[in-house]
Specification:
The complex is a heterotrimer of chains A (about 55), B (about 250) and C (about 140). Chain A is mainly α. Chain A contains two helices and no strands. Chain B has one domain: Four Helix Bundle (Hemerythrin (Met), subunit A) (Up-down Bundle), CATH 1.20.120. Chain B contains nine helices and no strands. In chain B, helix 4 packs antiparallel against helix 5. The longest helix of chain B has about 35 residues. The N and C termini of chain B lie far apart (about 45 Å). By secondary structure, chain C is an alpha/beta fold. In chain C, strands 2-3-4-6-5 form a five-stranded mixed barrel. The longest helix of chain C is centred in the first third of the chain and has 27 residues. The chains are: A mainly alpha (about 55), B mainly alpha (about 250), C alpha/beta (about 140).
Chain lengths: ~55, ~250, ~140
């Protein structure tokens, strides 16, 4: 099987690769968004704590 | 009068205590990530490269390797949310509330994936992006249930009240789950019947079935990672003023 | 279990039973509307609507597909293994349309009793296998 054939997906390239691409985007977003938000929250909480008890 | 022996009950209470769970999640996530990749890579390679094309649908059927596992997850996560809702209502365990609300966006993501990939599969095979048959419509309702859980939780200021309201919504919505599953048997639908869960034997060739099962387990492990990450965030939000969070902040990050 | 917890658990159980019953009755009441298509038997027995658009589902009978002209007009017979209905359609067929496959057509019955379709969708089955396996299955079945 050649690489070209693989990407062509028997003529269904658009449907197959759009499906896989969108899935990747959704899964990565749902995994990273809580991590990013938690880092922000931790930074805020740390700042607040410093201000309260110098 | 307890049905659960004391040592087991103590174990659950300890594990379910926020600081303990937070530390446990930190320990589990790296292992789960390794396991996820060990399942995902052979699953994708098997599904996209090794598995033969289908005799009717050619290569377009390869969408099955994300469509079906995502659809399974959309049902599985909702049932888990309803169970968490029940536990939260009866035993008032904070961790159950946190797990419930953390699961909702992940479940919504899987439902969205199932709907969109189904549409992208339906266009070339059925000849249409969308039909209002019982299967597709009930799965769309599931997406709205997930989004409803997240927005209801966000709309109520007091988070204990919010968690209680969301638990009830999750329990009420669970009635949709058997409807989705059996829709293709109870009514005439454009969507075909089940392939893998048939009582006799799955009507899918073994070379195509193995990557499908690998992807299904990979998605389950993905959910475990994603829900732990989300639960860590929710725990911090709920417990921002608790002592364990304060000592966590003093540790060098 | 503490009594107040037991009480809450029972309340939840009752709630679930109530919702389950309500959903069952609602679905029973709307059963007809939830059917995506009528079967060919429904049409032959006169259960399908007359003079309005509806959907008809069935299997394309082997050897029944005819293309009488050079245009896109196709005639074929649909069956649910009990009753048959003739269908006429003029337009582009989905990739999966072939003899022996299930389809769902939207259209209306004309006065000859022929179903004139405006749209044809393919309904694929739940079987997935490589072409070689399908070929050998066919070979094994044919001599019988």
């Amino acid at each position: 099987m050649s690489l070209e054939n693989f990407f062509a997906m028997g003529g269904y390239a658009f449907y197959v690769w759009t499906s896989y691409g969108l899935t990747l985007v959704v899964l990565v977003f749902n995994l990273l968004s809580p991590v990013v938000q938690r880092k922000q929250l931790l930074r805020q909480l740390a700042l607040k704590q410093k201000r309260e008890q110098p | 009068m307890s049905i659960i022996p004391a040592p087991i009950s103590r174990f659950f209470h300890k594990t379910a205590s926020p600081p303990h769970f937070y530390a446990l999640a930190d320990k589990l996530i790296p292992w789960l990530t390794v396991l996820f990749l060990l399942l995902l890579i052979p699953g994708l390679y098997g599904g996209l490269v090794m598995a033969p094309a289908d005799y009717q649908q050619g290569d377009s059927y390869r969408i099955i390797y994300i469509h079906v596992p995502a659809a399974w997850m959309s049902l599985f996560i909702y049932v888990l949310m309803a169970i968490m809702g029940g536990i939260a209502l009866v035993w008032r365990i904070k961790l159950a509330e946190v797990m419930l609300i953390s699961s909702a966006p992940i479940g919504a993501g899987f439902t969205f994936i199932a709907l969109v990939t189904g549409s992208l599969w339906g266009k070339p095979m059925w000849g249409t992006w969308w039909v209002w048959d019982a299967r597709l419509t009930s799965e769309l309702i599931l997406l709205f249930l997930y989004l409803g859980v997240t927005s209801l939780y966000g709309a109520i200021e007091d988070k204990r009240d919010a968690a209680r309201a969301v638990s009830i919504l999750a329990l009420v919505g669970v009635v949709n789950i058997p409807i989705i599953h059996y829709s293709v048997e109870w009514w005439n639908t454009l969507h075909q019947g089940p392939t893998v869960s048939k009582m006799d034997k799955p009507s899918i060739h073994i070379s195509m079935l193995i990557p499908l099962l690998l992807m299904a387990v990979a998605f389950k492990v993905y959910y475990a990672i994603a829900v732990l990450q989300a639960a860590k965030l929710q725990l911090l939000k709920r417990e921002a003023s608790a002592q364990w969070v304060k000592s966590l902040l003093e540790k060098p990050q | 279990m503490k009594p107040h917890r037991k009480q809450r658990l029972m309340l939840i159980g009752l709630m679930l039973i109530g919702i389950g019953l309500a959903a069952t009755f609602a679905l029973k009441a709307f059963n007809e509307n939830l059917m995506y298509f009528f079967s060919t038997t429904d049409v032959v027995e006169g259960k399908a609507p007359k003079e309005t658009l509806f959907r008809l589902g069935g299997m394309v009978v082997k050897g029944s597909v005819q293309r009488p002209g050079a245009d896109l007009l196709v005639r074929f017979t649909l069956s649910d293994f009990s009753k048959e209905v003739s269908v006429e359609y003029s337009g582009i067929l989905p990739d999966l349309f072939r003899e022996g496959q299930g389809i769902v057509a939207k259209g209306r019955l004309d006065n000859r009793g022929v179903f004139v379709a405006e749209e044809v969708l393919a309904k694929h089955d739940e079987n997935y296998m490589p072409p070689e396996v399908a070929d050998s299955l066919k070979k094994n079945q044919e001599p019988k």
